[in-house]
Amino acid sequence: MSYPTPAKTTFETLEVKKSKFIAYVCAASTREQAFDQLEQVKTLYPDARHHCWAYLLGDPESPNSAAMSDDGEPSGTAGKPILNVLQHKGVGDIMLIVVRYFGGIKLGAGGLVRAYSNAAQAAMEKIVTEHHVELLPMHLLVDFKHEQFVRHLTSEYQGQIMSVDYAQKVNMLISLPESNIQDFTASCHNIGIQIKQG
Question: Family per UniProt (predicted)?
């Protein structure tokens, strides 16, 4: 499974009737990462009246989790419009925070929805993405003489070595993109390496 994710933090500023809206888009693959990003933005703008947000975790077509907050704005006028923008962009593992400095003129519910939507949209138009590729775990039982070969093969097939334990043989936990598992497995079986997926 592969999908676009934010490659770096992006922001855009929008002014509506003297209120200033600053929209931040950043990567977050867990709820904890999303809230860490929110805390960082709150630290940058501690005197802002509202820090509204939405996130979409996992594949944007079938997210693991989605959440939003109006942070004191009237219900449904901030978090929901931000989440709506995210749901139509096809980007996953994403957190979007819109900071609002009140300018003294009330915008009304419709005006707030438009302002938060437009700020979120403006930030999303500047986003740079990279592709997230899900890696699947595999356990390997390897003779010592084949360890370097397996390390090289793992790298060649865009995998990662998660852990290595040494006993009578080398017990390796690796992860690989699903599209590369069949070829990797065939190469390992040719020299007698035992593989267990999952």
Answer: Belongs to the IMPACT family.
What are the tens digits of pLDDT across the range 136-195?
888 999 899 999 999 999 888 888 888 899 999 999 999 888 888 888 888 888 888 888
Architecture of the domain delimited by 2-131: 2-Layer Sandwich (3.30)
Domain ranges of the chain: 2-131, 135-197
Its pTM stands at 0.71
* Helix H or strand E encompassing 137: strand 135-142
